[in-house]
Amino acid sequence: MIKFAWLQFRVQAAVAAGGLVVVAVVLAATGPNLVHLYDTTVAPCAARHDCSAATTALTGTDGPVQVVSDFLVLLIPLLIGMFWGAPLVAREFETGTFRLAWTQGVTRTRWLAVKLGLGAAVGMAATGLLSLMVTWWSSPLDRVRGNLFDPLEFGVRGLVPIGYAAFAFALGLCAGMVVRRTLPAMLAVLVGFFTVREVVTKWVRPNLIAPLHTKLAVTAGSLVGFDETPSGMTVVATTRGILPNSWVYSNQVVDRAGHAPTQAFLNRACPFLTTGQANFQACTVHLAARYHELVTYQPASRYWPLQWGELAIFVALAAALAAGCVWWIRRPVS
Length: 334
Hints:
two-stranded antiparallel sheet; 3-stranded antiparallel sheet; elongated; mainly alpha
């Protein structure tokens, strides 16, 4: 059964291997230049006082490769679910060949387990190798940008793409088994994959680990400006340079009781808000005397724990789908 399943899957595996070789050649040819550019321009830029120009030059290097590599890691798990997982069982139901397999002394459970295990393993391995190569190639850029917690960057680096591939493949296989039609199963993968990823990105990932809270002094460097809201003006502050590479959930200017500056206080401390008389320094001094920044964030040290946590979530979802498929296939099938 394993040999037969591999014969059915060999074309997909060959395409994946060929694609990985092409990507590896491109990244191996351009990656050393990025590392050299970082070591010679960005690393010593503080001594030359030209970090802005150095980082701009680095981030502008090999722009098409940056876009395509990230796009591939983002798209490959979905393609695995749609074009590997969905047709794998749905096509057999459409053509009726599943009946032949079940009359050859192969149980339904074994028939499904071999297809599921082989396809998931190849898909996870291919996605993991691709993510590993892109993560290595992008490391100089990621050190400069310092935004690994960005929703897009987080999902195309490290370990989580492996979980996405496992989930997408299991989702496609289960959808094909339930609807028994390839095209509807592919559409179900497209909708289900992006829906689950969006839910995890927006609501699950921020709550995987309880964020930290810290208090920072209000300074001229941290005070960005003011935003007008329906309830009045609010102070806008930044933690740039203070909490590097962190994931900042919120940054509020509050007093010891946790209250934001009142509109009356802002009008007194920062008269330019109403009169137009610019005295930003005096405004900062008045704010610093009574208020501080309350920052809610995930430190950079929690990047890999969050990666492992999200990987575990998607592998668990894939395992749950696989268990559901096994239960479903044991039902009477006409």
